[in-house]
Amino acid sequence: MPAGGFTAAGTGGGDYEAKITPVVVISCIMAATGGLMFGYDIGISGGVTSMPDFLKKFFPVVYKRTQEKGLDSNYCKYDNQGLQLFTSSLYLAALIATFGASYTTRQLGRKLTMLIAGIFFIIGTVLNTTAVNFVMLVLGRILLGCGVGFANQAVPLFLSEIAPTRIRGALNILFQLNVTIGILFANLINYGTAKIEGGWGWRLSLGLALIPAVMLTLGSILVVDTPNSLIERSRLEEGKAVLRKIRGTENIELEFQDIVEASRVAKQVKHPFKTLLQRRNRPQLIIAICLQVFQQLTGINAIMFYAPVLFNTLGFGADASLYSAVITGAVNVLSTVVSIYSVDKIGRRALLLEAGVQMFLSQTVIAVVLGLKLQDHSDNMSHGLAMLVVVMVCTFVSSFAWSWGPLGWLIPSEIFPLETRSAGQSVTVFVNMLFTFIIAQAFLSMLCHFKFGIFLFFSGWVLVMSLFVTFLVPETKNVPIEEMTERVWKQHWFWKSFMDEN
Q1: Considering the entire predicted model, what is its pTM?
Q2: Could you say which DSSP state residue 197 is in?
Q3: What percent of the residues of the chain are helix, what percent strand, and what percent coil, each to the nearest 5?
């Protein structure tokens, strides 16, 4: 099955022939379990931090504020720096760990980096589950964060490099699909464990993270490393054999030579982070950084981290808030499937721009309803308006899930040349985790001070990022990963001026 007639411009012509082989599908599914672990960690923290037994043990001040009448505030009852640190410490650790992951990804390979991530996940999960004090709790989250840093560094690169060009977007989004599935599973588990009597339900919620952690660890042992990684480490024959295996054809010479040439250029780069700052790499760097900043400024993690808290704030009650979080989790999964089917057909830009309109409108409606009906210490919201908020939240989540969620990871993983790809992915993960940490640490305080205005704050940023996409983000659909410079950057109205050799 030919790869849709894509010309390798840098080598003078020809097509990459590739079949969708079982080894590619299985490898991508196994690798994407790193997303499952990431999503579970995102989803589980919001539910656990709304469980009375968990709050009573680790955050008694917050517990008191949620239980005693007169202290209950619709916007401020969960505002506590320690509680936010439990969630955000994972992302602080991840942004630091990504630089170590850059070294292992380049020098030891994508496969071994995923294995290291799995080991971090296992140890962190055990610590969280057996925690008897706040220090153990945060230490476990920090180790989970190291796992996130290593997994988010290696998995998107692995998926982009092993996938045939014409379905690279769909296979790469398997990572984001697993993130959404992990969030949904976490919400379902929280819904069940919140009902457990005896005060240990939160331990079960945290402990079940061991399942995706073990899946990633075993999967990373079983998968093959990418041809790009093997060739980059001078294992040419092994890389060629793997390329032949994953493409399902003997006609791999053209793609092999392109990877060898890209590797030769990459080896001349002794300081990839310094090279990343050169003028000709600035378009990729700027877009990768901006996509990560904008992804967090959509407000999605504010909703996903604290969905149970958010719905509880809206007066849904403990059970109803977790139930509502499950609904948003299901919408997240289904909408990510939409992205898998559409990203390689209608393209990256169309999805980002459509979602911008949808996210802006839904957040504006949420802000107006909350501003009119939900005061800090009084709730005039009818059941119908409360359901409207849930519908608007689901509308927002769906648009994010088929656009900024998966594409925020897909686009950076495919735009960097091989010589700066690991370094570029490190910067991508670092910026993503930095702003995830900032939002996670600040959201409950922002909710307390901005109140309904928090949604106007995020919708304003959605408008800014949509303008950024309109003018500065090129289309990368159906472009071979090693041909981005010739076929994308040198053709773009603005970025082409950066492609001069000087």
Answers
A1: 0.75
A2: T
A3: 80, 0, 20
Region class of 251: left (phi > 0), else alpha (psi between -120 and 50), else beta: beta
Residue 209 · residue 193 · CB < 8 Å: no
Q: What superfamily in CATH does domain 274-501 come from?
A: MFS general substrate transporter like domains (1.20.1250.20)
Q: Which residue has the tokens 């080896």?
A: 267
CA distance 71 to 370: 20
DSSP 211-268: HHHHHHHHHHHHSPPPHHHHHHTT-HHHHHHHHHHHHTSS--HHHHHHHHHHHHHHHT
Give 493-498 contacts, CB < 8 A, sequence gap 24+.
495/283, 498/279, 498/280, 498/282, 498/283
Q: Please state the domain extents for the chain.
A: 20-225, 274-501
The amino acid that residue 471 corresponds to is F
Residue with tokens 């009906």: 373
CB 281 within 8 Å of CB 484: no
> Rounded to the nearest 5°, which phi and psi values hold at 297?
-80, 0
Amino acid found at 57: K
**Separation of alpha carbons 441 and 303, rounded Å:** 13
Q: Residue 142 and residue 454: Cα distance in Å, rounded?
A: 28
- Alpha-carbon gap, residue 376 to 380, rounded angstroms: 11
| Structure-token pair, residue 340 | 């898998």
Per-10-residue mean pLDDT of the chain, 502 residues long, equals: 28 58 82 84 80 85 71 62 78 86 89 94 95 91 92 85 81 82 87 84 93 90 89 90 88 87 80 87 94 91 62 63 75 89 90 95 88 64 76 90 90 86 85 83 77 88 96 90 86 88 52
Homologous superfamily of 20-225 in CATH? MFS general substrate transporter like domains (1.20.1250.20)
Structure tokens at 320: 């109803």
Tens-digit pLDDT profile for residues 48-83: 887 888 888 888 887 777 776 655 565 676 666 777
Nearest to 409 by CA among 439, 431, 437: 431
Helices (H), 49-109: 52-58, 60-67, 81-107
Those residues whose C-beta lies under 8 Å from the C-beta of residue 26, and which sit 6 or more positions away, are 223
Phi, psi of 5 (to 5 degrees): 75, 35
| Close Cβ partners of 18 (under 8 Å, ≥ 6 residues apart) | 1, 2, 3, 164, 165, 166, 247, 248, 249, 255
